[in-house]
Design a protein that fits this description.
about 260 residues; alpha+beta; Glutaredoxin; 2 domains; 8-stranded mixed beta sheet; 8 strands; about 15% strand
Length: about 260
């Protein structure tokens, strides 16, 4: 084996090459900061859940695969709606074969929406391209699970996404709709994963560990998870998964506290 002191790497200014013991020590030191970052991120999500809401009074109109849709229709009966403005239309680089490269990167990262749906949340992409072009693009790029509508009015201008991509979050209370959050620019880079989407919604992940306002829906941590083809509304958590997740969480907590398992 080559002596570490004799190692020459092709990239300049790399960190030192150390022993396994020294590497573990450095990792533990960094982990302290990473855990602090996680706690700060959780606190920010808790603050986000307490942001004031803005009522939406305009009856926006979209086109979907089956025809005309209103904003309420986009919720698909759920309480929370996340709308990502994707640029796919004449004048956008790539048209008509592709959508915007950056927006396409976002679409490539989107997790299966069944997990969001299980938390009373619907994700929708919106563009100005006609539905025929959107259907072709979805099939071509493998984005078939993402609901994707056509913007027909001032929705994009009214919600800050007429000139640049962005993600808006809405909440439905009966027939009333409220805008609860908005993120764009580099904030959009982290979107795509189930957890990041839920963390920008007013109800959050809806797990008991979260700091949410009193009365918000919360269920035992991990227990609602399921295979994307196995969610059944109102069904009890999978018994075997409850056992596995309980055991895993207990082992994790024991390792954190140094307690014997």
């Amino acid at each position: 084996m080559t002596n570490a002191a004799e190692t020459r790497l092709s990239i300049p200014n790399t960190p030192p090459v150390v022993s396994p013991e020294e590497w573990e020590k450095a990792h533990r030191q960094l982990l302290v900061k990473e855990k602090a970052h996680t706690r700060a991120r959780d606190a920010l999500a808790a603050e986000r859940r307490r942001m004031p809401w803005m009522e939406v009074s305009t009856d926006y109109v979209f086109e979907g695969p089956a025809g005309r849709l209103g904003l309420l229709d986009l919720f698909q009966g759920r309480r929370q709606l996340i709308v990502y403005r994707a640029f796919f239309e004449p004048g956008v680089h790539g048209w008509p074969e592709h959508a915007c490269i950056g927006c396409s990167m976002v679409a490539d990262q989107v997790a299966h929406p069944a997990h969001l749906n299980a938390r009373d949340t619907t994700l929708v992409f919106a563009s100005r391209a006609p539905q025929a072009d959107i259907a072709r693009l979805k099939a071509q790029m493998g984005w078939t699970t993402i609901p994707w509508v056509t913007v027909t009015d001032s929705f994009d201008a009214d919600f800050g996404v007429d000139e640049w991509h962005g993600t808006n979050v809405f909440f439905r209370d009966g027939d009333r709709v409220f805008r609860t959050y908005f993120v764009n620019n580099r904030g959009d880079e982290q979107m795509g994963g189930t957890w990041n989407y839920l963390d920008i919604t007013p109800l959050g992940r809806q797990e008991v560990w979260e700091d949410s306002p009193e009365g918000y829906p919360q269920t035992p941590t991990y227990k609602w998870w399921n295979w994307n083809d196995s969610y059944v509304e109102g069904a009890a958590p999978d018994k075997r998964w409850v056992e596995v997740s309980d055991a895993g969480e207990a082992a994790f907590r024991n390792k954190e506290t140094g307690s014997p398992s």
